[in-house]
Amino acid sequence: MASLSRTFRIQKRDFTNAGNASISVKKLLKSLNLSACVIRKVSICGYEGEMNVVMHAATDGILAFELTEKKIFLTVSDEGPGIEDIETAMQKGYSTASDEFREMGFGAGMGLHNIRENADSLHIDSTLGAGTVIRMEFNPGG
Ligand SMILES: Nc1ncnc2c1ncn2[C@@H]1O[C@H](COP(=O)(O)OP(=O)(O)OP(=O)(O)O)[C@@H](O)[C@H]1O
Ligand SMILES: [Mg+2]
Hints:
alpha+beta; about 140 residues; Heat Shock Protein 90; binds magnesium ion; about 25% strand; single chain; binds adenosine-5'-triphosphate; 5 helices
């Protein structure tokens, strides 16, 4: 299987199109006949990463997808404001979401936790003022 990669732009605060990047990845995975289990895991992680850019990032971001013979790589990146304490941010229930976003149904503080639960490998790089890169890997076979 040759490697396949795609990138999708995520617009900060654009709740009309929010979720579209991860939906595009999901469609791509379906067209590639990957298992329902893998599609579910990748879609959850893509969606949570994408929504974090929509809600928390100071800039637009990128959702990058790559499928190789051995792995699926999913990377979500933005250029600020960065996460001060990644361990704290990963805790269930921790959220800095505004009341406005909570009223829209976000801000349960479950996104990064869900990513940790569903990605086979997770690496977060974040620097205040510089941005956040979330790298996730999945086994395409399961
Ligand atoms: N890309 C990002 N840039 C800056 N801060 C972020 C980013 N992603 C997450 N965070 C910080 O980490 C916190 C926890 O993120 P997490 O996704 O777990 O919860 P949430 O987005 O607040 O709520 P939920 O995902 O349940 O709607 C956020 O509230 C925010 O403070
Ligand atoms: Mg979130």
